[in-house]
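worker-3 :: picked Multicomponent Na+:H+ antiporter subunit C
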Amino acid sequence: MNTASLAGITGALLVGLGLFGLVTNPRPLRKLLAFNLLGSGVFLLFGVLARRGAAAGIAADPVPQAMVITGIVVAFSATALAVALLLRLFEETGRSTLRADPPSKAAGDGSGA
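worker-3 :: tokens ->
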């Protein structure tokens, strides 16, 4: 097994773990971490695919590297924004989760008004 195959398997594993975390964890911070894990796996897979193309004799293309670097910067800034919003939510409500509003009595009284 060469290093490209190992990196590809690792990237696929990161994507799988990220998807599992997104589906199973109800808390926003854990979902954010799972989404970052998924993004890191995608970046790794994209880099491995670009490297394999260069190793196969195709001329090296800097575009995949530039896209991965740009994606990392965007993911970092989006994560910082999401953490800031979660901190603001915690400061305002004292909770770190969003819960549904209880149904209001005016909406369910059947008056039709």
